């Protein structure tokens, strides 16, 4: 924990040093401050002071306390607090984006999605966007431990929050995107259509041809699929997922354990890090959760994919909650009662269909994150072996594909 003394004189000096004034720094867009400011990193005291003074204005005085969380693989996440023990106490989060991740993330779309998600709860707020990061509400709780992901107590909470997340009105996001952009001069046009396979193709084009050392390059060339092989697998998935039954929604896209925050009383969860949000079929997020239940690359990778019973129970819980949040959505007969009472047999068949669809989306998850990790090998922190992650998830993809083909249970 680092303490940072704050004085108005230092704030003014920081402003003068940057050759800026607050009025020229800030623009408000839909109550979100956009700040022409770059924060170099967790040690950029002047930048953090300036950001805090702009966001909280006269409420900010006294001491800044900054704690750095290092669990993320792409960004710096800081928990910032001032006014502890006073009526002006505030605690909030600052995320400083990593440079490599920026090539893979649509930051403008992320902000639109984060703002839409936070609008579902008055307790959470996106305060500001700065040139290389965001400032937003602190969420009380702790990340969901990996072993807990396969406990149905927590899985039901995740299923509930997924259903709620998938109820976000996408029309509002698309409409807002027409009016403004946070990170470019011109708004980008977003279409409500699946983006998963195109994202994978785009990322394949970014795969490196060599890594920082000859040893890593040899390992990469020997053990990692070539771009042409991945492109062939994308065509396979395109056919396999031609007619999905799950609805097109706003997906979180990265249901990673540390992106799931469990409330202190363990009655709810909240998702964080919406960098990889996309318009896709909801089974993608269900599949993402199943993949993470089975392990992560820093764990003993991907050997414990959830049992069929667990998958069915999770899907059933998800569909039950989705009926609550989106009562008019078409779930192919699973959406509660129709004019004729639905039979249990039909319900079971539909749940089985969702589980089978999630299996094929799990293939896409393994492929996507394998390619992501391979791209990250070229400019990443040395304490994390992204190449191991890339190879492990590629092996998980081909292993799961083999099992699905042997089971001979296509979606169509």
From TrEMBL:
Domain of life: Eukaryota
GO MF annotation list: ethanolamine kinase activity
Any single GO BP term: phosphatidylethanolamine biosynthetic process
GO CC, alphabetical: cytoplasm
Keyword tags: Lipid biosynthesis, Lipid metabolism, Phospholipid biosynthesis, Phospholipid metabolism
Metabolic or biological pathway, per its Swiss-Prot or TrEMBL entry: Phospholipid metabolism; phosphatidylethanolamine biosynthesis; phosphatidylethanolamine from ethanolamine: step 1/3
Gene3D superfamilies: 3.90.1200.10, Phosphorylase Kinase, domain 1 (3.30.200.20)
Enzyme Commission number: 2.7.1.82
UniProt similarity note: Belongs to the choline/ethanolamine kinase family.
UniProt name for this protein: ethanolamine kinase
The species this protein was found in: Calicophoron daubneyi
Species classification: Eukaryota, Metazoa, Spiralia, Lophotrochozoa, Platyhelminthes
